[in-house]
Specification:
alpha+beta; 4 strands; 29% helix
């Protein structure tokens, strides 16, 4: 016995208004996920749709499959970049 409460595997549902706001925000965002050519870290680039042209001026990312993404998450090799 560990002595502490076991974590609840199912998160509580979001309040309806927050869920609506997050859906609306998600519709305004664009993202690119890939591996950095130099460091091999997984990079997540995120920005508003209005910033889409600026993504083209950033260093190129290589494709990453699901296994590589999961490994990078486990090993804390994920970098999140906000694109203005």
């Amino acid at each position: 016995m560990t002595g502490g409460p076991s974590p609840d595997p199912t998160p509580a549902p979001l309040p309806p208004e927050l869920s609506r706001q997050l859906d609306a925000l998600g519709g305004q965002l664009v993202w690119r996920v890939g591996k950095d050519e130099v460091s091999d870290e997984v990079v997540v680039r995120l920005g508003y749709a209005s910033a889409t042209p600026r993504f083209a001026h950033l260093p190129r990312l290589r494709g990453a499959n699901d296994a590589e993404l999961q490994a990078a998450l486990r090993e804390n090799r994920v970098v999140i970049e906000w694109v203005d």
